[in-house]
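Pilot study result, target chain (378 residues):
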Amino acid sequence: MKEHRASWILACITILTVDTVLGQAPSAPIVHEPSTSLPQAQGKIRMRVSLVNVPVTVTNGAGELVSNLDAKDFQVMDNGVPQKITYLDLGRTPLLIVLLVETSSRIEPLLPDMRKTGIIFADVLMGQDDEVAVLGFNNSVDKLTDFTANHETIFSTISELKCATERAKLFDAMSTGVDMLSGRLQRQSAADLAERRLVIVIMSEATDVGSDTRLNAVIQRAQLYNIAVYSVGIPTTLAELKAPGKDVRHRITPEGTFPQPGMPGTVQIQPAEDIRYGHGNLMNFNLWALKNIKDQITGHALQKAAAGTGGRHIATFGPKSMEKAVDDIAAELHSQYSLTYEPKGTKETGYHKIRVNVKRKDLKVRARPGYYLAPPEG
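Predicted structure:
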């Protein structure tokens, strides 16, 4: 397998959105088709491609993964031209993963559940040849663990997660994850690159607070380096409702004193303000409702990142659904087909649009929809 695939050199890959199904998420946002010129990135990218590799996820009508297909069951089009599949692999290509975990004070009530979910992630996702790095982010982005294949190191790192400031620099963290993966690529040989799938997995709410990086810039760079973004949406509703209620009333007596008691023989009634603010976290609920409406209007950052890179976003609603989301992502990554073909009959450089179909009409396909082929050096 390695000899066959050693000729593949990683292209400058970019992805535009297609009509895909994102698990437990609304319809993917529209991403405009890029121009035929190669987008600018940090530094010069001079990678050529002789073989194109396309990770493909196939599900049936019930959303179950399908893993019994052969090369003859797929059809691949490159810029509208049918292509011959030269190699098909199922889930055996090792993974290089950056795990991003939000550690802002906003999600502190869910931190024990996130620790447990993160440990499950490492347990079910890391194979023998897979490597994972861990980043924590709040008002800063911190590298907690560099790339390692040691499960115990990842377990220990995740179990020691701590929350800090309220801000969550999500986009800066995503950019750092891309930097780590792309930096690793630059230190690898072409043969080694063909033997890795690059993935960012995010455990966070969809809200960015304070980043210097723009989301579109992060997605573009992930596309260039063929990085798929997967995410588990933290249930912020639950975190807000679990948070201690805040008493925002103005005191009518000096601090440390108490109101004058009522007349003897009269029934004392608890003031309405005490009922509103003392219990039930109604203020937290109202704040969450306003924030949630704003997020719906401005768009879902994690969903956009998944749609733009061929990954997947899964919204969750509690600890059990968080654990299931991690299981689903792990199952998908270990059940992906890797289709390889040599482009024939298409333009040599610029943007190439890919379309992958299966002959069975009852199946659904999710794949990256395109790549950039850089001009030759010189």
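One observation from the pilot: The two ends are 32 Å apart (CA to CA). A full batch analysis is planned for the follow-on phase.
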